[in-house]
Amino acid sequence: xxxxxxxxxxxxxxxxxxxxxxxxxxxxxxxxxxxxxxxxxxxxxxxxxxxxxxxxxxxxxxxxxxxxxxxxxxxxxxxxxxxxxxxxxxxxxxxxxxxxxxxxxxxxxxxxxxxxxxxxxxxxxxxxxxxxxxxxxxxxxxxxxxxxxxxxxxxxxxxxxxxxxxxxxxxxxxxxxxxxxxxxxxxxxxxxxxxxxxxxxxxx
Length: 204
Fold this sequence. Notes:
It is built from eight helices and no strands. It is an all-alpha fold.
């Protein structure tokens, strides 16, 4: 993102027309390219810190699916934006930010893990104000991209709810069951290695 903006700044070239333009064939290229394009330095800076925090949380807590969430998040949210958005160029990586915020929040709830629910509540506390921007309250902001990202994150959180860090109940193996229970199902206390054998003689 920063390299693209730097190139625009030094060259005077504008990449905005490579963003998502709804319901046109050429506008589909923006599904992949728009996350790297920003309209101003302020736009870029406002997106950088939330992206860094949410990507770090996703990669740390959901490592097995993190790359898929990021990739599918960009593609699916971009396609939804392409379908529902008003006729204008939609640029910026805020769609992915909403994907990750939504994914992290709902994943903790779907997985019923106390640690992940705590992360979800932290995301809600830090970025709860983002929810208002999925509504058309700012004329020059792509609320359609935000809404698409939010929906995509919810879908991915549900789809990957059983993959990765999931609280699981312990299951005895057949061997362990035989060691700890007799034929009638009665518990057999384990014998410790340091138990005294009356028949053993001490050796000096």
